[in-house]
Design brief:
It is a single chain. With 175 residues, this protein is of the alpha+beta class. The chain has one domain. 27% of the residues lie in helices and 11% in strands. It is built from 4 helices and 6 strands, in the order βββαααβββα. It has a two-stranded parallel ribbon. Strands 2-3 form a two-stranded antiparallel sheet. A hairpin with a 2-residue loop joins strand 2 and strand 3. The radius of gyration is 16 Å and the shape is globular.
């Protein structure tokens, strides 16, 4: 699978955010970045802003939301180490988490970066702009029981960590 690194960074995308399900409902976790779409900066050049305490806030929110989930203790420490590494670039953090979570859910996939930017629509299997926080997705996972649900869940916007912490080694069976 190829990861686009030469496109201009898009604000309000999943490039620097995800959603978790906590006691108060859906909560956004956003990694603060410098610059952004106003400056037409390539994704590969977007730097993380560490002047904010986002790492501690995110880890605290994840712990509060999933601390009692059945598989939290098996995966959290590894995810925490990755988030606490102080990656300079957002793409580096995203790639480390992508590879890490792919391994955790046993997804057999190799990742590489694009060599040049290709405008949208040139390839049949171009999924770069298919999933965005602004648009609802038709994709649905099989339902499963989560920590803060009275029954089965789920929203298509929730991060894969929700499924991982709640279902552990059988996560791939729900995708």
């Amino acid at each position: 699978m190829q990861i686009e690194r030469l496109e201009n960074y898009c604000k309000q995308s999943y490039r620097n955010r995800c959603y978790i399900l906590g006691a108060s409902g859906i909560q956004a976790l956003t990694v603060p970045v410098y610059l952004g779409s106003f400056h037409k900066t390539a994704v590969k050049d977007i730097r993380i802003d560490y002047s904010k305490r986002w790492q501690k806030v995110h880890l605290g929110a994840i712990s509060a939301a999933y601390g009692s989930a059945p598989y939290f203790i098996y995966y959290f420490d590894t995810i925490e180490k990755s988030i606490m590494k102080n990656h300079e670039f957002l793409l580096d953090l995203n790639m480390e988490l992508l590879v890490l979570l792919s391994d955790m859910i046993r997804l057999d996939c190799r990742f590489s970066f694009t060599a040049a930017f290709e405008p949208v629509g040139r390839k049949v299997d171009d999924f770069r702009y298919l999933i965005t926080p602004k648009n609802r997705s038709d994709y649905r996972t099989k339902t499963y029981t989560g920590v803060f649900t009275a029954g089965k869940i789920h929203s298509e916007r929730i991060s894969i960590i929700d499924l991982l912490f709640n279902c552990g080694p059988v996560t791939m069976n729900y995708l």
